[in-house]
Amino acid sequence: MTQAQVNANSAYNAFLSGFLTYDQYAANSRLNGIAPLPNPFGGTGKSSSEVTNDDISIELLAGKTKISIDAYTSAYTNAAKIKLDDATRLMNSIAPRFFESLAKEWGFDLRGYYDYAQKAYQDACNAIASDMVVYGKVSKASEKKAFEAERAAQEAYEMAWTADYELRSRLVSAAAFNDLTSLQDRKDVIWLYLTMELNIDFIHAAAIMGNIAIETDQTSFRSTQVQSNRKNYTYTIDDGVGCGLLQWSHRFRKERLKTYASQNNGSVWDYDIQLNFMVYEGTYAGYQVEYSKFLSIDKLDSATAYFCTVFEGKPDGDISGRQKEAKLIYDYYMMK
User: Which of 145, 259, 283, 309 reaches 20 to 30 Å from 12, CA-CA?
Assistant: First the structure.
């Protein structure tokens, strides 16, 4: 086989894998002096990653046979991979504690669907690889495995999406948050907001909540918490009084929180405003380096201590107590 043929074959495989369009493959082939192979997708002009089940059904209904088994299989496995990636993204934001609660409510564990889809996809990939070694082409049996993998991945994604939707529906309005009578309910809402709305991983969500626990006297977790439990307090920028989940007290930060709340049509006492402001400070407003450093720490105790020292500004602020609370929270949601 000449180098030109090798180049043309590589371009064709890239087309089948979805990295090139058919026109790009054909142009590459002609540049190498090789006549391009016919488009196996019946003239749709789509690469294998773009072919949908509807395209395939239309081809079959029209009595066409231009779509090869290899193309079918590539379309199925590409679709399965995309759906599994989407399902994985959703699944990774759900802590084991919520998997358990959903399993009790639904009567089955959605992880079973996900695990089955992962296995079906891997089995299909292994079968295809074996076919290519033994036969140089994909067998009908492997095409069936790829089809089953695509269906399983679709079902796993739908189940993960449903779980994600169900858990997001538990995020109460800002006005209702402080009226939740259960401390655990308030913790759950904060955990879900940190991990699902703000995409903070479990280690760092627990580190933040360990600090919130101490800042709100461990029994509150209310965004209306005021330092020393002052009654009838009016939010004032320059009085040095700690306010909210993280007890903002410095004039500059309280003023910035007030401005942020106003710009986002909320109140300084809203839990979602406060948690979003925390990320805003770490992303845009003066703490970019520190927030990036915080997220890079992979040990719970260290992340908790760093958050206390840097974001709370309390190098001697009962770090061991915060670490204890963070571990309790992490272990609860991870079901350790």
Answer: 145
299 and 284: one domain?
Answer: yes
CA distance 251 to 243: 11
pLDDT tens-digit series, residues 123-170: 999 998 888 888 888 888 888 899 899 999 999 999 999 999 999 999
User: 195: closest CA among 289, 102, 267, 90?
Assistant: 90
In this structure, are residues 114 and 87 in contact, taking their beta carbons and an 8 Å threshold? yes
72 in the same domain as 162: yes
Give the per-residue pLDDT at 68. Answer: 59
Distance separating alpha carbons of residues 336 and 10, to the nearest angstrom:
49
Contact 81/69 with Cβ under 8 angstroms?
Answer: no
Amino acid 17: pLDDT: 59
Residues near 164 by beta carbon (within 8 Å), at least 6 away in sequence: 90, 93, 94, 196
Question: For residues 275 and 212, is the Cβ–Cβ distance under 8 A?
Answer: no
Judge contact between 45 and 59, C-beta under 8 A.
Answer: no
CA atoms within 13 A on the CB side of 106: 16
The verdict on 87 and 194 lying in the same domain is no
- Show the tokens assigned to 59: 């081809």
φ/ψ region of 221 (left if φ > 0, alpha if ψ in -120 to 50, else beta) reads left
- Give the Cα separation of 249 and 333 in Å (integer): 30
Q: How many domains is the chain partitioned into structurally?
A: 3
Under DSSP, the state recorded for 36 is P
Tokens of 93: 């934001």
CB 207 within 8 A of CB 326: yes
Q: Which domain holds residue 2?
A: 1-66
Cα separations in angstroms, 285 against 44, 80, 199, 256, 280: 50, 41, 19, 9, 6
| Same domain membership, residue 269 and residue 209 | yes
Percent with pLDDT over 90 in the chain? 61
Kindly report, residue by residue over 85-95, the tens digit of the pLDDT: 999 999 999 99
The structure tokens listed for 128 are: 């295809």
What's this model's pTM, rounded to 2 decimal places?
A: 0.77
Q: Are residues 145 and 56 in the same domain?
A: no
